[in-house]
């Protein structure tokens, strides 16, 4: 089953593909070392072909969901359960 993310959701890279596509109108292939395993980014959008546009420190790239995991940020002020 393919993972689903929300726009602006924080994600982490859990696998590196053989190459990375840029998230430009005309995507270009980049070497895999342009991002690092464990690097965190933000989901920009959903693209055709099962790709997600993700903004990282070195730019925006297209990655399939198998290479990403959601980052669950702890709530800053959790409410007590009744």
From TrEMBL:
It comes from Lyngbya aestuarii BL J. PANTHER family: PROTEIN CHLORORESPIRATORY REDUCTION 42, CHLOROPLASTIC, PTHR36799. Pfam families: CRR42-like (PF11347). This is DUF3148 domain-containing protein. NCBIfam families: RegSipA.
